[in-house]
Amino acid sequence: MTLEMFEIDAMIRRILVPVDGSPGSQRAVAMAKHLAEMERPRAEVILLHAIVPIPYTHAIPGGLSYLLRTIPDLPARRKKEAETILDEMSAFFVDSAVKPRLLIREGHPADEILKCIDSEKPSLLVMGSRGLSKANEFFLGSTSDAVVHYATCPVLIVR
User: Fold this and answer.
1) Which helix (H) or strand (E) element contains residue 5?
2) CA–CA dist 82, 144 (Å, integer)
């Protein structure tokens, strides 16, 4: 197999950065900002936050409906939390000519990242190796591991 068999577009036009507010996603945002500013014209940066759905559980009497009744405005609170995370991450761009586009999706983070790759067609995905979840994977967090295996664009994992 030779290099000529692959079409390579070295221009980074659009960078997708999934964020959850963790130190890993902060490092990913800083890397994406640096890469976007190096490009001429500057690359577009998209910051994505996935709101994890509230799991339906039989462990709580009444399940989801109980949660929604006992915690008023839970969906609005979760959306506000997502907006806060995106605002904090977009603060990295205050001194930059690059102004990120902010997206909020609801669903499992890996699924939403992969859907966003399909819809936004980024040249590059930049993400942290671990997020805020308590999963202790051997090398990568479960979300980054799933994305690396199924993404249809180049992926840069930032440690």
Assistant:
1) none
2) 19
Domain parsing of the chain, residue ranges: 12-158
* Per-residue tokens: 4: 């000529």
Q: Which two tokens stand for residue 83?
A: 């907006």
Between CA 40 and CA 107 the distance in angstroms is 34
Architecture of the domain made up of 12-158? 3-Layer(aba) Sandwich (3.40)
pTM for the full model? 0.84
What is the C-alpha to C-alpha distance for residues 138 and 57, in angstroms, rounded to an integer?
28
* 78 φ/ψ sector (left φ>0, alpha ψ -120 to 50, else beta): alpha
Residue by residue, pLDDT tens for the chain (159 residues) are: 555 544 555 689 999 999 999 999 999 999 999 999 998 888 999 999 999 887 655 555 666 666 666 677 888 899 999 999 999 999 999 999 999 999 999 999 999 999 999 999 999 999 998 765 544 443 346 899 999 999 999 999 998
Spatial distance between the Cα atoms of 37 and 9, rounded to a whole number of angstroms: 18
How long, in residues, is the chain?
A: 159
